[in-house]
């Protein structure tokens, strides 16, 4: 590919195309072609996988792969992560700046003539992708990422189309606009290779099949799977596909093919059986992430063997993952087919109403949790042991908390947000909040042991609070439910921030007794006492050991960070949600740090100390901004930012108040 190996000003190559035109296949081929020399990173978006449809995962993934590609980049990235190990959890602009732009600027001037290639496939399958494209394209346009070239693939849909079409620094090709003869030639080669050992297919058939496929590579791949799946009916299937030649619309051809595949798979079933088959198909494309057949069976109330037989019958459009045994669709166009409105009588009932389907799934989740959740799920023997100290704890979690319950516990909030809030759903949720909510939090705490947590957002107990937070924002919930959820969220945060958050029994012993009056249903808690509180407004949500006496505190305006100053001469930044330190201590003062404060925008921190100085810090990197502010002749015991962030005021034991320019650090005014 000439573009990759030239010094062309176009840093972006956009491969656009309708569903099924071969974009992902090309992306994979490019990865194979570039792998030996200049493939630096690749990210394949997928609406099926939660991690692969999350735009906030892309930059951290690229940064990690670039670190493996370049030692210089790895060293520069390490320096940034030493300042703040939670950079992967930051907003996309901070990720772009600190995980990609800054380390790359250090790396770029040491590059050889070889250009590093980054491939991002299926941008349109990523949620909120515009939030990534805006800062990424801006960084490319500004010249901050010179030496990197990007290959993007996507459908020509908004907002990807809008952002990439207005970019003046990219090359582009639309696969659906490529000459039909060229595409048919490639498809003919593919069909010949895949069907050469299949005796029923002649060269004349290959030509006809290529014409039927038009420009859709996914059509070709699907018919190969369908024809070769069965020797008994392969000839019949071949004839049916050839009959699609008369259909003029390229998308309609694909719909007709999918309709034929499903129709043949369930041709002999009764109307009653067809209902559960459709229910299973709709669930497969609507679950939060791909799950094994046993989970689909539980969610749809269908026998697991029946689900497995259906998957086998539809092996040309569905497959089971080898590692996780989850059910996947081969191509997003099959999900699109099921979600589109149908006109023909044969396929009309195949249409999936997304709102109705999520309503069914949330009811299924509540039902599973109602049946399976109970007090002390693992029969933990003691409250004196940390969870990880209990013998065989991980295997017990995997054995006693079945996959269906795991899915329900992790995903009920997702389905609730996408469902129809009818009387059944509201009643089920009210019952869940009164009778099972505490056991759900217990299970979410235990599931931390069975998950590989790479960051705070992957902590299931943190997800617990996030679920409650998203649910309380649903506007049409009754006020009583809203209040209950608010109190539950606070109780969960209290547990997360407490010293006993890794001792699950203490959820019942040390947290809930304080909340029995505020949370409906808590009075039913099994063998739990109740703390009678004189004052309920001021509650200790959590505490952690800082390692030093704390003299000064402030919390950022958005509530995500806390800064502390203390006897050890440092200021420290903390994650307000988890209580974990962010980056290294801010070192520079030579004596006790009396006072600390965030700027109104949260980007800077000011500190004052017994060493008679005031210091300003970058709140993201932890690095000092400018030199110490000197002028006081005694300990500086108080400091603050003005509301507009342009001034700093400090008070000292020398009986003076000083005002400083926060931008220039110059002294402005003195009061004594």
Topology:
Elements: E1 12-16, H1 23-34, E2 39-44, H2 58-69, H3 71-83, H4 92-108, E3 116-121, H5 130-141, E4 148-154, H6 160-165, E5 170-174, H7 180-195, H8 203-213, H9 217-228, H10 234-242, H11 250-265, H12 271-286, H13 293-300, H14 304-313, E6 318-320, E7 327-329, H15 332-339, H16 354-372, H17 393-400, H18 403-417, H19 423-435, H20 437-446, H21 460-471, H22 479-497, H23 506-511, E8 550-555, E9 561-566, E10 571-575, E11 593-598, E12 604-609, E13 613-618, E14 629-630, E15 636-641, E16 647-652, E17 657-661, E18 667-671
Parallel strand pairs: 1-4, 1-5, 2-3, 3-4
Antiparallel strand pairs: 6-7, 8-9, 9-10, 11-12, 12-13, 13-14, 15-16, 16-17, 17-18
Helix pairs in contact: 2-3, 2-4, 3-4, 4-5, 7-8, 7-9, 9-10, 12-13, 12-16, 13-14, 16-18, 16-19, 18-21, 21-22
Pfam families: NPHP3_N, WD40
Protein name: Nephrocystin 3-like N-terminal domain-containing protein
WD repeats: 550-584, 586-627, 629-670
């Amino acid at each position: 590919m000439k573009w990759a190996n030239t010094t062309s000003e176009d840093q972006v190559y956009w491969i656009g195309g309708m569903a099924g035109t071969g974009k992902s296949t090309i992306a994979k081929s490019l990865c194979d072609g570039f792998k030996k020399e200049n493939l630096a990173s690749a990210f394949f978006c997928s609406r099926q996988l939660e991690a692969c449809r999350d735009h906030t995962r892309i930059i951290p993934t690229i940064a990690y792969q670039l670190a493996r590609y370049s030692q210089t980049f790895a060293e520069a990235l390490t320096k940034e992560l030493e300042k703040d190990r939670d950079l992967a959890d930051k907003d996309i602009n901070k990720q772009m700046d600190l995980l990609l732009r800054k380390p790359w600027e250090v790396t770029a001037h040491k590059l050889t003539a070889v250009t590093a290639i980054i491939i991002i496939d299926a941008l349109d399958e990523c949620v909120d992708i515009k939030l990534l494209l805006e800062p990424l394209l801006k960084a490319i346009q500004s010249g901050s990422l010179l030496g990197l070239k990007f290959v993007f693939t996507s459908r020509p849909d908004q907002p990807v189309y809008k952002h990439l079409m207005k970019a003046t620094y990219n090359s582009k090709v639309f696969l659906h606009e490529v000459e039909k003869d060229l595409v048919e030639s490639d498809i003919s080669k593919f069909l010949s290779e895949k069907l050469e050992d299949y005796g029923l297919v002649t060269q004349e058939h290959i030509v006809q099949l290529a014409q039927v496929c038009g420009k859709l590579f996914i059509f070709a791949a699907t018919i190969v799977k369908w024809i070769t799946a069965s020797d008994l009916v392969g000839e019949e299937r071949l004839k049916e596909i050839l009959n699609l030649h008369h259909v003029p619309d390229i998308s309609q051809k694909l719909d007709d093919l999918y309709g034929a595949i499903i129709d043949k798979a369930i041709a002999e079933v009764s109307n009653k059986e067809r209902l559960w088959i459709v229910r299973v198909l709709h669930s497969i494309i609507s679950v939060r992430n791909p799950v094994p057949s046993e989970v689909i069976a539980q969610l749809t109330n269908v026998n697991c063997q029946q689900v497995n037989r259906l998957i086998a019958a539809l092996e040309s459009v569905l497959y089971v993952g080898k590692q996780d045994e989850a059910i996947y669709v081969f191509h997003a166009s099959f999900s699109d087919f099921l979600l589109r409105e149908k006109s023909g009588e044969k396929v009309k009932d195949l249409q999936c109403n997304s709102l109705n389907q999520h309503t069914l799934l949330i009811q299924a989740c509540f039902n599973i949790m109602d049946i399976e959740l109970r007090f002390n799920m693992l029969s933990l023997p003691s409250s004196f042991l940390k969870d990880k100290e209990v013998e065989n704890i991980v295997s017990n979690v995997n054995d006693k908390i079945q996959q269906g319950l795991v899915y329900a516990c992790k995903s009920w909030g997702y389905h609730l947000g996408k469902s129809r809030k009818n009387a059944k759903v509201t009643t089920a949720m009210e019952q869940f909040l009164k009778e099972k909510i505490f056991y759900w939090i217990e299970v979410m705490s235990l599931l931390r042991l069975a998950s590989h947590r790479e960051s705070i957002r992957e902590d299931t107990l943190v997800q617990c609070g996030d679920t409650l937070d998203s649910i309380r924002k649903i506007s049409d919930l009754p006020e009583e439910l809203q209040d209950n959820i608010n109190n539950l969220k606070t109780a969960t945060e209290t547990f997360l921030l407490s010293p006993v958050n890794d001792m699950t029994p203490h959820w019942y012993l040390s947290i809930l007794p304080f909340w029995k009056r505020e949370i409906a249903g808590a009075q039913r808690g099994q063998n739990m006492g109740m703390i009678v509180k004189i004052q309920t407004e001021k509650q200790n949500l959590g505490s952690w050991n800082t390692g030093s006496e704390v003299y000064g505190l402030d919390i950022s305006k958005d509530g995500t960070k806390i800064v502390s100053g203390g006897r050890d001469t440092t200021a420290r930044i903390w994650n307000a949600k988890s209580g974990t330190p962010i980056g290294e201590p801010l070192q520079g003062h030579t004596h006790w740090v009396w006072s600390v404060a965030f700027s109104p925008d949260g980007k800077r921190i000011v500190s004052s100390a017994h060493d008679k100085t005031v210091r300003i810090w970058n709140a993201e990197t932890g690095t000092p901004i400018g030199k110490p502010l000197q002028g006081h002749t005694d300990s500086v015991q108080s400091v603050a930012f003005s509301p507009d962030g342009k001034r700093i005021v400090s008070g000292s034991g020398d009986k003076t108040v000083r005002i400083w320019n926060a931008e220039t650090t110059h002294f402005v005014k003195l009061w004594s």
